[in-house]
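Re: that backbone. C-alpha cells:
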C-alpha cells in the first residue's frame, strides 16, 4: 500500500513533467513566431504562468524530499529536484534565445514592411500623379469641348441673326415690290386713261376739221356758184 506522501511525490513528478513539456512547446511556438509583437507577448505570458506552476511543483517536491524519513530516499528526491531545476534553467535559456529569434524575425518583418510601405507610398504617389495628369487632361478636354460648343453657339446665333436680317430684308423688298406694284398699276391706269383721252381728242379734232372743211366748201360754193 502506497503512503500518502509517496502519492504526493508521484503527482508532483507527473505535473513537473507535464509543465516542462508545456513550457518546451510554448518555447517552440515562440521560436516559430514571426509576429506580430502582440502574439509574442501573449506567448510569453503563458510561458511565465507555466514557469510559476513548474517552480511551485519543484518546491513542493523539494519540501517532500526534505520530509523523507530515509536518507537514501531523501537524497534520491533531492537529486530529482536538482535535475528539475537544471531543466528549468535550460528551458529559461531556450526561452531567452527563442525570444531573441522571434524579435529578430519581427524586426526583419517590420523592415520589410517599411520597405514595401515605401514602395507602396511611391506607387500611390505615382498613381496619384497619374490620376492628377489624367484628371488634368480630362479637364482640358472638357474645356476644349466647352469652348467648341461656345463657338458653335456663337456661330448659331450669328447664323440666326443673319437669317433674321435676311428675313427683314426680304420683307422690306416685298413691301417695296408691293409699293412698286401699286405705282405700276396706277401708271397703267393713267396711261389707259390718257390713251382714251387722246382718242377722244383725235376724234374731236377730226370732227372739227370736217366741220371746218364743210364750212369752207359751203362758203366757196356760195361765192362761186351763187345760183346753186
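Recovered sequence:
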Amino acid at each position: 500500500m502506497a503512503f500518502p506522501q509517496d502519492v504526493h511525490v508521484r503527482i508532483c513528478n507527473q505535473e513537473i513533467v507535464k509543465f516542462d513539456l508545456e513550457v518546451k512547446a510554448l518555447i517552440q511556438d515562440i521560436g516559430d513566431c514571426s509576429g506580430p509583437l502582440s502574439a509574442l507577448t501573449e506567448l510569453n505570458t503563458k510561458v511565465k504562468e507555466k514557469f510559476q506552476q513548474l517552480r511551485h511543483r519543484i518546491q513542493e517536491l523539494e519540501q517532500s524530499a526534505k520530509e523523507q524519513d530515509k536518507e537514501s530516499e531523501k537524497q534520491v528526491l533531492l537529486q530529482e529536484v536538482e535535475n528539475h531545476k537544471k531543466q528549468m534553467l535550460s528551458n529559461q535559456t531556450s526561452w531567452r534565445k527563442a525570444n531573441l529569434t522571434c524579435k529578430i524575425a519581427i524586426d526583419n518583418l517590420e523592415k520589410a514592411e517599411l520597405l514595401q510601405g515605401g514602395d507602396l507610398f511611391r506607387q500611390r504617389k505615382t498613381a496619384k500623379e497619374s490620376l492628377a495628369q489624367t484628371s488634368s487632361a480630362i479637364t482640358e478636354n472638357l474645356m476644349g469641348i466647352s469652348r467648341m460648343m461656345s463657338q458653335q453657339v456663337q456661330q448659331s446665333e450669328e447664323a440666326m441673326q443673319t437669317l433674321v436680317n435676311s428675313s427683314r430684308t426680304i420683307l422690306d423688298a416685298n413691301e417695296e415690290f408691293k409699293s412698286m406694284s401699286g405705282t405700276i398699276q396706277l401708271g397703267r391706269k393713267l396711261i389707259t386713261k390718257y390713251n382714251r383721252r387722246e382718242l377722244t381728242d383725235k376724234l374731236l379734232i377730226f370732227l372739227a376739221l370736217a366741220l371746218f372743211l364743210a364750212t369752207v366748201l359751203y362758203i366757196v360754193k356760195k361765192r362761186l356758184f351763187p345760183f346753186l
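The domain at 4-116+155-184 is CATH 1.20.58 (Methane Monooxygenase Hydroxylase; Chain G, domain 1). The helical segments are 4-32, 37-66, 71-224.
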